[in-house]
Specification:
The chain is an alpha/beta fold. About 35% of the residues lie in helices and about 15% in strands. It contains 16 helices and 15 strands. The strands form three sheets. It has a seven-stranded parallel beta sheet with strand order 3-2-1-4-5-6-7. A six-stranded parallel beta sheet has the order 12-11-10-13-14-15, sandwiched between helices. Helix 4 links the parallel strand 4 and strand 5. The longest helix is centred in the N-terminal third of the chain and has 24 residues. It is globular.
């Protein structure tokens, strides 16, 4: 079959699936944004997105929809060019709903089976919006914006033949009448690559500082350091942790940008804002901000970690938490719904109320002070990933069958 993946940041969630399908003698291509320079496991066609400004004073709550329609129109024209110039007609198109790229592909290839990746459905109440009282987003105006943001998701689901979500909780963020169209299969964790290593060590990028398995290392990983992933809670807990554990070091992975949620005041970053807040109470010689690191470095950090902290609003679950579990880390995570689908407190990790800074400090101190006490959680964490989320034995075979089946 001819299979086309559509994703502005390809390979994204399809990093394992696309080459696996190509290995089964399917003709696999990807359609991605021109500026995307991520290495691709399959041939790619690139589309150019014309810069266009949608004035919020004009479009109001419909601004996001206008932006997504722009994406959809651009991708549809690129698809039509593939069809007309090269007689390219795929049997299957598989794209991410998030940016509107799939909105009009049925108009180009009406007979192609359209599959969409349904990662999350925004709502004005009950999920991420309004969760954190420190950053209130309430009131009619904001609720109108969030509700209007649902439009391209609904239109995209309406066009799709079937949909995929990585977790059950994420699938259930969609309206009830759409949920029976969504199959739940995780993207998969490579448990052979991300595994415990008793002789593991890692040198922090840009330094000569090296940590080894057994060192008192606390890890925290985000794409960007921001409130959506609990950076503010961790930083407020950290002074007490390092005061109690004189040999402990915190290694914090993440960029200075914003992936989700509120932007910091102009000219500032959330990283610096929280550092300023705890200034004078934190031994910065034992706090290592390493930015965004190569994947191999990230895996080695998980292997040497004595305690791994993971927090998230009720939002998309990060691969990094599952990878930490696969590496045999002692994961202490927020008691929020996406996490609770995977971690049971006291069985394969610890769960702490997202906002309880004192409880976070205490749990992290205990984990650093008595690592052997939590060995059973580490072992069961890895077993959870092997049994449910393993790439090769669980997820990838199901994903292949999902794509290939009518």
């Amino acid at each position: 079959m001819r299979i086309l993946f559509v994703h502005q940041n390809f390979p994204g969630q399809f990093v394992h699936l696309a080459p696996a399908l190509a290995g089964r003698s399917h003709e696999v291509r990807a359609l991605t944004l021109e500026s995307n320079r991520r290495p691709s496991p399959v041939p790619v066609t690139r589309y150019r997105l014309e810069e266009r400004t949608f004035d919020r004073r004009v479009f109001g709550p419909a601004t996001t929809f206008a932006e997504r329609v722009h994406y959809g129109e651009t991708v549809a024209r690129a698809a039509a060019a593939m069809r007309d110039r090269y007689s390219y007609v795929p049997d299957i198109v598989f794209g991410h709903l998030g940016w509107g790229e799939t909105l009009f592909l049925k108009e180009v290839w009406p007979n192609a089976r359209l599959i969409v990746y349904a990662e999350f459905f925004y709502k004005p109440r009950g999920l991420d919006v309004g969760f954190d009282p420190e950053f209130p987003k309430d009131g009619l105006a904001h609720h109108l914006w969030v509700t209007a943001r649902q439009a391209h998701f609904l239109l995209g689901m309406n066009a799709a033949d079937k949909a995929l979500a990585p977790t059950l909780w994420q699938a259930r963020t969609y309206p009830d009448y759409l949920q029976d169209r969504i199959t739940v299969i995780h993207d998969g964790i490579d448990t052979d690559r991300v595994r415990p290593g008793e002789t593991a060590s890692v040198e922090l990028p840009g330094t000569k500082k090296r940590f080894r398995k057994g060192d008192e290392v606390l890890t925290f990983v985000n794409r960007n350091l921001e409130p959506y992933r609990g950076y503010h809670i961790l930083m407020r807990a950290l002074p007490d942790v390092l005061a109690a554990r004189k040999d402990a070091h915190a290694v914090i992975v993440g960029g200075d940008g914003v992936s989700y949620g509120a932007k910091p005041p102009a000219g500032k970053t959330w990283k610096q804002i929280l550092l300023d807040e705890v200034a004078g109470r934190l031994d910065l010689s034992r706090v290592h901000f390493v930015g965004q690191v190569p994947y191999a470095t990230f895996v080695d950090l998980l292997r040497v970690s004595r305690v791994h902290a993971y927090l998230t609003y009720p939002f998309v679950l990060s691969w990094s938490m599952l990878e930490a579990m696969s590496a045999g880390a002692h994961v202490i995570a927020s008691r929020t719904p996406p996490v609770e689908e995977v971690i049971t407190d006291g069985v394969n990790g610890r769960l702490i109320d997202f906002f309880d800074v004192k409880a976070w400090s205490q749990a992290l101190i205990e984990g650093l002070a008595e690592p052997a006490r939590f060995d059973h959680l580490r072992e069961r964490a890895r077993q959870t990933i092997i049994e449910t989320y393993d790439l090769r034995t669980k997820c990838l075979p199901r994903l292949i069958e999902f794509v290939e089946s009518p």
